[in-house]
Amino acid sequence: MSYENLKLEKGMYRQEGKTFTQVLESLDPSENYRGTALEGTDAFQRQLKRFDIRAKGPDSSSVEKFFRTMDSAVLFPEYIARTVRTGMEENDILPGIVATTTVIDSMDYRSIYSEPTQEDKALREVEEGTVIPATQVKTKEHLVHLTKRGRMLIASYEAVRFQKLDLFSVMLRQIGAYIQKMQIADAVQVLIHGDGNSNAATEYKVGTGPISGVSGTLAYDQLVEFWGQFDPYTMNTLLMSTGTMTKVLKIPEFQNPLTGLNFQGTGKLTTPLGAELYRTGAMEDGTIIGLDKGYALELVRAGDVLVEYDKLIDRQLERAAITAISGFGKICDGAAAVLKV
User: pTM for the full model?
Assistant: First the structure.
């Protein structure tokens, strides 16, 4: 079936276990367009082309173009979801702190964990005929707490019908940025306090053993000592507030020319310890989270960005909720710790 002949309807959003785009792809597979001018587009993008809807650029279409036919109106919720998702992905630090992402189709999720002893970590030599040491993997006692985060889109069709999609997308990306910011705050809380399974991060304080120095000050020595607490994990990521990062970047060792060149060339801040630095407003001044990003945190998502498609299609905007449901779980104890300056 050609993409120009597809019958679009609201029911495409209700198919269990499939997103709107996946339903479109099942009807109009992208593999059929290999070697053509439409190669590289997905089924949704081809529908935009079908109705001559240009979503980006100075020549972008107006909002009202989605509502010229019932078929094209069905595309509007997916356009909003994609644009919000783009806003969530801009400046998103979650990929830098999450070890794995699990997508579920329910509101309940119980993760697994392992608590190896020092003897387990040693991996002793196994003599012939002896029992191989075991690492026990258990189910967590408490469920991972999932939180719905979102914003209400309030606008009448008359207010936005003549607005260009390029400008309208700025508002939608901002909603995505707000959702992403709240999800990072959730991640920070779980890293520090745990996920309800008695797995809060170990807290160290400057001036209190094993961290040297004077409380309220921070030098390179304290960061090295903090790094040393992660064995057998590797402290390869640091999270902190803007105020704390300003202090860290003033440490002489961080003014190494190679560190500066890397920042100027790539925009990425790395420490002389090899850890990547991320700043977030979800952190308090004077608090640093160190973690091994390969083992510390699991992101759990209940589906993708959700949009109230009925209201957007039938009532032409008015009020519609845009939400994302997610939660975080700690994976390995010891893979994250907190340093109080």
Answer: 0.84
